[in-house]
Design goal:
By secondary structure, the protein is α+β, with helices and mostly antiparallel strands. The protein has helices at 13-25, 42-54, 102-117, 131-139, and strands spanning 3-7, 58-65, 68-77, 86-93, 121-127, 143-154, 157-167.
């Protein structure tokens, strides 16, 4: 099954919401957002996609296999002049499609976009316990910059995350 990575379009919003709903339904998923906190309407999701298109330092990428969204990556930068050269990214891959190169494909596309957009710094936060994700980011040249102790409170537990960056 071939994998396609492309920028999200406003018409993808319904599929993106379906993808996110399935993702948030997973137990034990390392995302610092509770399902109840992610309640975007179709109009709001369309606005998010449109906003990414309107900014030169933002991109929203989709990984698609068999006409189904199987991964998403967004990277967005600040409107402040001093920070426009950097962006913060988040990535997710659907259950059943992990460890199949989806995350790598999204990261490759994002790095290519960043270079062409003049981005010089990409940063992210990752759960300290998510070794597979940390290994993936390191394979792309991301380096740990610090640990945010007890940064996340989830399911009655305080968790650390790692701040990582890639300098281009």
């Amino acid at each position: 099954m071939p994998l396609t990575v492309r920028e999200a379009e406003v018409g993808d919003a319904r599929g993106m919401l379906r993808y996110a709903g399935a993702l948030f339904a997973e137990e034990g998923l390392d995302l610092p957002v509770a399902p109840s906190e992610f309640q975007l309407t179709l109009d709001e999701e369309e606005t998010v996609v449109d906003d990414h298109h309107s900014r030169p330092n933002a991109v929203f990428l989709l990984a698609i296999r068999d006409e189904e969204i199987v991964g998403m990556l967004n990277c967005h930068g600040s409107s402040r002049q001093a920070l426009r050269h950097s962006c913060e990214m988040g990535i997710s891959v659907a259950k059943g499609h992990r460890s199949q190169g989806v995350g790598q494909a999204l990261l490759h596309a994002m790095v290519d976009w960043a270079k062409s957009a003049g981005i010089r710094r990409i940063e992210l936060k990752v759960y300290a316990r998510n070794g597979r994700a940390i290994d993936l980011y390191r394979s792309f040249g991301f380096e740990a910059e610090g640990r945010r102790r007890r940064a996340i409170h989830q399911d009655g537990e305080f968790l650390d995350d790692i701040v990582m960056s890639l300098l281009l």
